[in-house]
Amino acid sequence: MPKRNQSLFAVVLLLAFAVFYARHQTRALEARTPALTPFQLQPERIMGTSCQLVVLAADPQACDAAPQMLQEAEANLRHLETLFSTYINVSEVSRINQAGAGEVVPLSPEVLEVLHSARTAWEQSAGAFDVTCYPLIQLWRNAGKEGRIPSAEDIRLAREASSWSDFELLSDGIRKLKATARIDLGGIAKGYSIDSTFLMLQAQPVTSVLVDVGGDLRVSGPYTDTLLWPVELKNPTANGSITHLHLTDMAVCTSGDYERYTTIQDQRFSHIMDPRSGIPAHVAKSVTVAGPSAMVADTWATALSVLGEEGLALLPEGYQATILFQENGVLREISSAGWAQLANPSE
After folding, report:
1. Which of 34, 57, 269, 338 has the fewest CB atoms within 10 Å, i.e. is most exposed?
2. C-alpha–C-alpha distance, residues 112 and 126, integer Å
């Protein structure tokens, strides 16, 4: 969640909108076709980053209701943030982390769903995606503030402090088996929140939907009568873009080390943790994953940042990914078999 600062992710939606009204104002934008009227809302600082909510509607009643739809969508995102954020002291995740050994923490269905999905991803990724590695995240965060690289013993102790074996998922909560065990849902909760909000809007009588939080997004319907939603993947090492996608009914999430990192003793360390080794991931420059669910795409963008090319074979069915590596100052791209079809949908 707050691990995602504005522009952390490289996916940028190329919306040719007119100048927006003041922030927090919703208005109909200039219609791209006589049939569709777009409405847009840009909430400020959701999950520590930028946000854009868009619906396109043709029905007059839907157009009248669109501003309220978008306000309710914003409220949903803010509510979910209060459940998932480790930066909110009273969030459900914070209460898990504050609990003692043997304590049962009641949880909402939303947090339970994310925890079950996170555990599944941990199993599928052979441990490369692990929300229980929060002590490692804290260790390296403090190391950056102190300007020192953690010792091997520091890393060993942080790795041993928390694991899935230290938690028991229950039907209505979680039992914490070791006091030092901690959870950080930063690599999955934003994707879940995008999905939840997207489904809220899609259930309304609208033609098209966009939910974009910090560059991670999910879309449905057309961008215009004849065009799909255009999405640009930015170059992680220079100005410009690497790939242009044209999508509908899909989510796209990107993770990378090029905007959020820590420099310690003249060495650069990614914010993405390899929970297996206890050190920051250093394989990929950026990873973009596309597929039906933003939560799954969010999860695997992080997992592939750790696994690199070998992780492509582990991608769940229906998901495609591209990984950018930097070798001797030159970018190299390796993608899953179906990625080219997203980048060149006419082929």
Report:
1. 34
2. 21
Token pair recorded at residue 244: 């242009």
Beta-strand relationship, 27-28 and 273-274: unpaired
The CB density around residue 267, as the number of other CB atoms within 10 Å, is 9
More confident residue, 29 or 88: 88
CA–CA gap between residue 249 and residue 73 (Å, rounded): 18
* Number of structural domains found in the chain: 1
Instruction: Name the amino acid, one letter, at 338.
Output: G
Tokens of 145: 């503030």
pLDDT band per the 50, 70, 90 thresholds, residue 323: very high
CATH assignment of the domain containing 120: 1.10.3980.10
Q: How far is CA 23 from CA 42, 50, 80, 224, in A?
A: 6, 12, 21, 25
The predicted-structure confidence for 35-93, as pLDDT tens digits, reads as follows 789 999 999 999 999 999 999 999 999 999 999 999 999 999 999 999 999 999 999 99
Question: Quick check: is 71 in a domain?
Answer: no
- Does residue 200 lie in a domain region? no
pTM: 0.88
In this prediction, residue 24 carries a pLDDT of: 34
Q: Which of these, 7, 5, 31, 4, lies nearest to 17 by C-alpha position?
A: 31
What is the rounded CA–CA span in Å between residue 164 and residue 132? 6
Q: Is 225 within the bounds of a domain?
A: no
Residue 257 lies in a domain: no
Domain ranges, residue 110? 92-176
